[in-house]
Design a protein that fits this description.
Largest sheet of chain B: 4 strands, antiparallel
CATH class of chain B: Alpha Beta
Order of helices and strands of chain A: HHHHHHHHHHHHHHHHHHHH
Oligomer: heterodimer
Number of helices of chain B: 4
CATH architecture of chain B: 2-Layer Sandwich
Order of helices and strands of chain B: EHHEEEEHEH
Largest sheet of chain A: none
Distance between the termini of chain B: 15 Å
Helix content of chain B: 25-40%
Strand order of the largest sheet of chain B: 2-5-1-6
Number of strands of chain A: 0
Radius of gyration of chain B: 18 Å
Number of helices of chain A: 20
Radius of gyration of chain A: 24 Å
CATH superfamily of chain B: Dimeric alpha+beta barrel
Distance between the termini of chain A: 49 Å
Number of strands of chain B: 6
Structural class of chain A: mainly alpha
Chain lengths: 408, 139
């Protein structure tokens, strides 16, 4: 990575945030001129040397281009005429305001995760504008073609403009719901990085770490929100297992077989601290905090046998109440199997099958197969595990399933 | 992501400048920089060291180690403190180092901090250290 790239990673959110405010909330224009300035830097800096004040250079270049656009558009739009006029006062147009920059970055996060956008668009726009990732990097991380990412971002910016989404931190009345939206985008990015749904790489750690970094930024800019800490805790505790999740040949290792000595203790410590922050708010844990609390049960247990499965069952019950989902039910069934045995768990799983609440998922037959195996019903188990292997899109997880079949 | 240590290296002259500077101002400047690292979500650890004059030096040039009191005025560089940050590339670590508040004449050295995973895992000493790290939750 060149120094331009490194500077962009550090500064892009603030640059795009400041420019958006400067352009009267026009994120599309701001992002375009910021990208143009970046392209110009990539061309000029290696040739002419890095400027003394790289951020100032990027801002000034982007601003010049913004003014050009204001003037061009002022013919048909009064709003831009005003912006172009304001800028002739010789000042810097209050572009870089240290007192507002944190709010600009926060506003950018909220806008990029706005509910008018499709989930894919939110992810792409967040990684691009807040994370400073290029379309190529996003495409690589999500295994989609570069033009797809570019089209998503372009469409997203147009949608924001068409819906007249204000560039602001949402007012207190909407805060909780909109914050939930931001957290779910970061969660999706983290999950995509920590468990690839397709392709050959089980852990695309960098994407997961980027989501965690953005969550820390959110915690620093918007303090006192327990669910932000809940998400950080969940991310840290999940990431703590990364070193133990894959074997020497890159094959997946399930939680029960992981060498717990390989878990990253610093990450666990940070995760438990964040969970403490989430708990300290005293408002009860939300969905992320509860998932983090479950991860903490694993992180602090010396072995599968020594794990407090009864507590995990209770936490899944609580999670099922605040965020009902068939996947949570399935996980609860797994915990029940550990706490009270496979027969009781199978009843829960069969209920999920009967109500067809997880159609097409490999997880359901995989868990069912496992439970049947433990109950000694080998033929039925084989059928379920074969089905799971057919449905599983992740090559490495599929190999784990096939190995289970061979082991019979 | 990888961890990098930003090692602050001052001189007698930068120490003197620091002694003259307003403590409140310094706290604010350093505090602002630290806050930037926190807001960027990259800060892992940071420590600054006490006055070099209060330190001692153990010299191994002879057959037995020789202990001398500080200040060690003959040295050109004084280790003053460090940051550990978790960033995606070395270039990013360098960019953060460029933003660090420092007196003219000071230097910052940037070194990657390898994880324990990079050592041979079957070595008994590595295993021992690993166990200690587990018990204490160390880096």
């Amino acid at each position: 990575m060149s120094s331009v790239g490194a500077i962009w990673r550090i500064e892009s959110a603030r640059i795009v945030g400041a420019l958006t405010r400067y352009a009267g909330g026009d994120l599309e224009l701001a992002e375009d001129v910021a990208q143009e300035a970046l392209a110009e830097a990539l061309e000029k800096w290696p040739r002419d040397g890095e400027p003394d004040n790289p951020v100032g250079w990027l801002l000034a270049t982007a601003r010049r281009r913004a003014i050009d656009t204001f003037r061009r558009r002022s013919v048909r739009d009064e709003k831009y005429a005003l912006l172009a006029e304001e800028d002739t006062d010789g000042g810097d147009g209050h572009l870089w305001d240290p007192d507002r920059i944190d709010d600009d970055v926060l506003a950018l996060m909220f806008v990029a995760c706005h509910p008018v956008l499709s989930p894919e668009a939110r992810v792409a726009l967040t990684l691009r504008t807040v994370g400073g990732l290029s379309s190529e990097e996003i495409a690589r991380a999500f295994l989609v073609p570069v033009p797809t990412v570019q089209a998503r971002i372009t469409r997203a910016k147009k949608t924001i403009a068409a819906a007249r989404v204000p560039f602001e931190v949402p007012p207190p009345a909407d805060r909780k719901e909109r914050l939930g939206g931001v957290l779910s985008v970061l969660y999706v990015i983290f999950t995509e990085g920590s468990t690839a749904t397709s392709g050959d790489v089980l852990v695309r750690k960098d994407l997961a770490y980027e989501a965690l970094r953005l969550a820390r930024t959110l915690a620093a800019l918007l303090p006192g929100e327990p669910e932000v800490f809940g998400l950080i805790a969940l991310g840290e505790l999940t990431a703590s297992r990364f070193p133990a999740r894959t074997g020497p040949d890159g094959e997946a290792i399930l939680l029960e077989q992981q060498d717990r000595r390989r878990w990253d203790r610093t990450a666990i410590r940070r995760g438990l601290a964040a969970l403490g922050q989430a708990t300290a708010a005293g408002r009860g844990l939300g969905p992320y905090g509860l998932q983090a609390a479950i991860a903490a049960c694993h992180a602090t247990a010396a072995s599968v046998a020594a794990t407090d499965w009864e507590r995990i069952v209770l936490l899944y019950e609580a999670l099922g109440r605040v965020a009902p989902s068939p996947v949570v039910e399935l996980n609860r069934a797994v915990a029940v199997a550990m706490a009270s045995g496979p027969a009781e768990a199978l009843a829960l799983v069969d209920e999920l099958v009967a109500t067809d609440r997880l159609p097409g998922s490999y997880l359901l037959p995989s868990v069912r197969g496992e439970l049947l195996l433990r109950l000694g019903r080998r033929d039925e188990a084989r059928g379920e595990l074969e089905l799971a292997a057919r449905l599983c899109g992740n090559e490495r997880e599929r190999r784990v399933l096939l190995r289970k079949l061979e082991d019979q | 992501m990888a961890k990098y240590m930003l090692i602050m290296r001052g001189t007698d002259d930068t120490q003197a400048q620091m002694a003259k500077a307003s403590f409140d101002e310094m706290l604010e400047t350093v505090g602002r920089f630290n806050d930037e690292l926190i807001k960027a979500g990259v800060l892992v650890a940071a420590e600054g060291l006490d006055d070099a004059a209060q330190g001692v030096v153990v010299d191994y040039s002879g057959e037995t180690p020789v202990v001398t009191d500080g200040p060690y005025g003959e040295t050109k560089e004084l280790f003053g403190g460090f940051y550990i940050i978790d960033v995606s590339t070395k270039e990013e670590a360098v960019e953060w180092a460029k933003r660090m508040p420092a007196f003219p004449g000071a230097k910052c050295e940037i070194r990657r901090v390898p994880g324990i995973d990079e050592f041979p895992q079957d070595n008994e000493w590595v295993k021992k250290e690993r166990a200690w790290r587990e018990q204490t939750g160390q880096l």
